[in-house]
Amino acid sequence: MLQDFLDRNLEFLSRHLGAFDLVKKALKVYNPSVYSVDEAKDGSAILTYKGSDSRSINYHSRYNPIREAEQVVAAAYNGESHALLIGSGMAYTASIVLEKLPNLDYGPQLFILEPDPFVFISALKYRDLTKLLADKRVVIFLGTDVDRIGEEWDIYFDWATTDGLAVIEHQPSKSRFADFFNRFFEKLKYLANRSKGNLVTLMNVGSEFHTNNFINLPEAFFTPGAERLFDKFNGVPAVIVAAGPSLDKNLPFLKRVKGRFPIIAVDTALRHMIATGIKPDIVCAADSSYENSLDFVGVEDEKEVILAAELMTHPDIFRVFKGPKLLVSFGGGLYPQIAKFREPAGNLICWGSVATTAFDLARKIGADPIIFIGLDLSFCDGRLHARGSYSDDILFEKLHPFTSIENETAEYIAERGRFQFKGSDGTFIYTDANMKAYKEWFEDQFRQTPAKIINATEGGIVHDYVELISLNAAIDKYFDKGVDVHKILMDSLSEPVKAEPEALIKKLREIRNRIGNYDDLIKKISAYGKHLNDNFSDKTDRDLNGTDLEKFTIVMNLHDKICDDAEIVQWFAALHTKFVTKHSSNVIKIRNKKDVTIGQWMSLVDALFENFAEFSAYQLPLVDNALLELSEKCVKI
Predict the structure, then answer these.
(1) How many CA atoms lie within 13 A of 154 on its CB side?
(2) Rounded CA gap, 473 and 166, in Å?
(3) Across the chain, which distance is largest between two alpha carbons, in Å?
(4) Which secondary-structure segment (H or E) carries 516?
(5) 230-235 CB contacts, 8 Å cutoff, 24+ apart
(6) Which of the pair, 153 or 558, is modelled with greater confidence?
(7) Where are the beta strands (DSSP E) in 388-468?
(8) Are 216 and 333 in contact (CB under 8 A)?
(9) Residue 133, phi then psi, degrees to nearest 5
(10) How far, in Å, CA of 146 to CA of 150, rounded?
(11) What is the pLDDT of residue 200?
(12) What is the pLDDT of residue 154?
């Protein structure tokens, strides 16, 4: 006789807020004649789905569903740290996998994806799932909203601390919802590439980002936030000027809407626009490299153009540009520490290309429609970018008597243009891996954006979820929706910046002193680690006593104190991303092992202390210089 466990299971499901809310709503229309639960030969609850087409789907073996689930897990799970279940059924597979997963005590590890809430309700009614639901390692995704589930996945899942992800498929669920799971895996692939791309970027240029944050801080802190513009252009058309090769043919038409539609340009297009006699209202800068700062050479004095820049932008841009400025934030770097002491900067997205930031700014200001030009994301007409960009400068530097700019460009395209797409005119266009990823990002975002998106590039490879018309046609269609752009911008910039520099200085000094104190303690107890490693390398902490145990405790306490200091670890990770990521993963692994030796612990601790000493030597002068300049600005104010 099957028991009803629903009420008790719901108590524990309440910790999974999203799933709990969906289940509570679905319970009102749950139909047990469609989701029929019976007993298998071994007495276990089994589910049969009876569809509207009179087709029945058996979710489990009618003889022994537990043994069936064990076989599925044995075939798909091989000791990975995390697991994703494709379909829950009656949750036999989930219970078995949970028993096998290591308990990392570091965030969720088991992700259950069930597109049909009624299937999950059937499991809640007839199986005691309290242990599964109470386990903090479990996350439950219900429903078929791929974008919502993708956002939740991105919050809970961290590739940097994952030692393998097992994907375990419940075949009846996968067959019934094949289209949904295919879309989910496409989303998962996109999120994985983005996450790994962000991590690789930090490993390669995290130090540059971090350094620029501190150099720019004294000026950026007193810069108005871009959030002042949010929702100020609701329902007004905006034009985003990207820097693709096709830009030339559309630039002249911008004169028709200058002053009526906000024109937002990427930094790479700025010089070419100025040379053509068109000034954007806003230019976005979000690159930390010196090469990108070259886009502002010769146009530093354009005081009618507003620079929207992030803290990690190259300092040459921030310091030499004479026009008005707006501060934007990508949510990371130094900004979380300064946010509480100033007006909001305005959080925007940056996904590899500054064009993604310009697009998000257009969304946040309320623009509708959002019109793109120059969004080729491909090698059109044998060129890399619009004329006048810094990429031309770099190619010119490679010239010698036996080559030409055309040859250098062709060689670049031949080497990197490995991906082929069909253009809107039926011809084939080539692009590289980065621009292919940007295409996928834009089209995924366009699909989720309420505003109408018009791609007026008249070329390139971005065709999905957009209206493809010419810029002139778009202007004709929406011309009457124009406003006085200059007045709105100037009114938004007129108020003084709300900032508390004294409070920020106090906070930075506090963090600076903690770094110095940790550095002093590391030097003081460095001999302790060597003593323990030399004399007790193959022993465990249970073998220690007296002063040796005291030394081990002191060393480990300092290690843990540094690792638990979130503010400092954020800075530390920016300069030593690869080490901090690997160290965090190794600490999790070693804490879940039995009989860890003193030698194993000291190896981890010594590596942390050595890297922290390097971090301290670099970080302290950065903080000191920023504090000095901030203090000087306070005196002037």
Answers:
(1) 18
(2) 51
(3) 89
(4) helix 501-536
(5) 230/346, 230/364, 230/365, 230/366, 231/364, 231/365, 231/366, 232/365, 232/366, 232/488, 232/492, 233/262, 233/365, 233/366, 233/367, 233/483, 233/485, 233/488, 234/366, 234/368, 235/366, 235/368, 235/481
(6) 558
(7) 419-422, 428-431, 453-455, 467-468
(8) no
(9) -70, -25
(10) 6
(11) 47
(12) 80
pLDDT in tens, 437-478: 889 889 989 998 999 999 999 988 899 999 999 999 999 999
Q: How many Å apart are CA 279 and CA 261, to the nearest integer?
A: 12
**Sequence-ordered list of residues with C-beta below 8 angstroms from that of 163, at least 6 positions apart, any chain:** 80, 81, 82, 585, 589
Q: Which of 269, 471, 250 is nearest to 388 (CA)?
A: 269
Question: Residue 203: pLDDT band by 50, 70, 90 thresholds?
Answer: very low
How many whole angstroms separate alpha carbon 543 and alpha carbon 219? 56
Q: What is the Cβ-side half-sphere exposure of residue 609, based on CA atoms within 13 angstroms?
A: 25
With b for 16 or more beta-carbon neighbours within 10 A and e for fewer, the 443-457 pattern comes to bbbbeebebbbbbbb
* Type of residue found at 597: T
Report whether 623 contacts 615 (CB < 8 A). Answer: no
Contact 124, 90 (CB under 8 A): no
Average pLDDT of 540-569? 93
Residue keyed to tokens 């559309």: 250
Which pLDDT does position 232 carry in this prediction? 97
Q: Is the peptide bond before 369 cis (omega within 30 degrees of 0)?
A: yes
Report d(CA 212, CA 286) in Å as an integer: 11
User: Which two tokens mark 127?
Assistant: 């199986």
* Residue 281 CB burial class (10 angstroms; 0-12, 13-18, ≥19): buried
Reading the block at residue 248, the tokens are 């030339």
93: which 2 tokens? 């597979």
Query: What size, in residues, is the chain?
Result: 637
